[in-house]
């Protein structure tokens, strides 16, 4: 992956700089136009960073506009979550608008198209319209209602607004070309009838504009200079331009960039909804799915996501980005800001037999070695401690530098210990390890040993629930799964493991939602369910890419 800081201008920056240099625009205005029918994901985050970032770089502004043209699917809950996500990412919009703000103007412009004999009322069913559009290799068939008079179309459209017809009984279509090579230009639907209450306009409307009709005109009303969409909308651009041309309104222009696809996950809103509804994940903020609220709950920072969007860049062709890049970005950010603590996730007791039973002493440890101003913290050291079970092997392989019978390791920030005896139960399970310590080897006193392990003092350690999140799917390229397979067949059964850990007492007092590093283990954050009487931590990411050795080439 390319993680260099230097890069050349992307094609959108080249366009904007040329437009500003030529005087085409005095300043730029972009927009982020989500439909409030669900929660935003990392793909939307890239679009947010791109639209707001371009405007900021070139001294322009960005509007937040909600494409609320389908009252059946849209809710205030989603509007609020989208605004919260945009602000969390660090952006503020110049104006907050809704497509529903423009319903009256869009309705008048639809009448203008009718008056120009460029739109007509069609009584065909949805299935008849679909079949009449033809195929890529076969031209469509004109509707039998295509040649209604302007007067009849105007009357019928007014009656549609007045609620005279049932859903599906009539639609308003543009009159373009049923033989056009772009099937979206074959008399697209502009308005359909929906008898449902809208989250902002209530019951004032029972006809609603389609996205392709509302989008370009909304851009034009706001005088958007650069309407930036993902690549799947490139076939919609001719229709976008056709409406603007026929209505003779401000010529906003659409540009397309490659959408974001990530390995080991799915970005389809439909599939994410299926995972939520079927209970494969706990909800829209489950830390295993790529929603912004899920990433936030997992411990990703706005800075790391903005860095990721910058590293991904702006491409003209779709590709799949390695999830490892996103994880690299959050490691880069958290390494600088995360407070260090020690926690033991799979504990085994160690008794230091030659350390006095009643003695305790305070050891010094840095709060964050990457920040010289962060200071230090105190660790209590005593006779009984916990270490990770994985840090001890009875029969170690060569070049094993952790604890083993007769072997020595340094306890991080503490002393060197040597394994003298292993105590087991009748089944052979290890109950505790008995060690001796070198009192002259306290951290800061030179004595060379190859292994260093972390620990917590048994008498002072506190319990916490730790959730170990991993990749949601076992297959990296979910778009390439074998034909006939269900994407849910590739769900990773180990994407969530919950353990009861021992943590140092200072960590138990750490403010919620503050990123921390469990030394040698990874980056973690207190979960939204966390409470003083039940500490719950989510693993954001491991310190290293644990999948690198197992991932398919």
Structure description:
This protein is α/β, with parallel strands linked by helices. It contains 13 helices and 27 strands. The strands form seven sheets. The protein has a seven-stranded mixed sheet. Strands 21-18-19-20-14-17-22 form a seven-stranded mixed sheet, with no helix packed on it. A four-stranded antiparallel sheet has the order 4-5-6-7. Helix 11 (about 300-310) packs across helix 12 (about 325-335). The radius of gyration is 30 Å and the shape is elongated. The two termini are about 15 Å apart. The relative contact order is 0.10.
Main features:
single chain; about 550 residues; alpha/beta; 7-stranded mixed sheet; 13 helices; elongated; disordered C terminus
What's the N-to-C terminus distance?
14 Å
Report the total helices. Answer: 13
- Assign a percent range to the helix content: 25-40%
User: Mind telling me the C-alpha Rg?
Assistant: 30 Å
Q: How would a textbook summarize the main sheet?
A: 7 strands, mixed
Oligomer state of the chains in this structure: single chain
What amount of the residues lies in strands? Answer: 15-25%
Low-confidence stretches: 549-553
Average per-residue pLDDT, rounded, comes to 94
Trace the largest sheet across and list its strands.
Answer: 12-25-26-27-23-24-13
Structural class: alpha/beta
Q: Tell the overall outline.
A: elongated
User: Using DSSP, what is the number of strands?
Assistant: 27
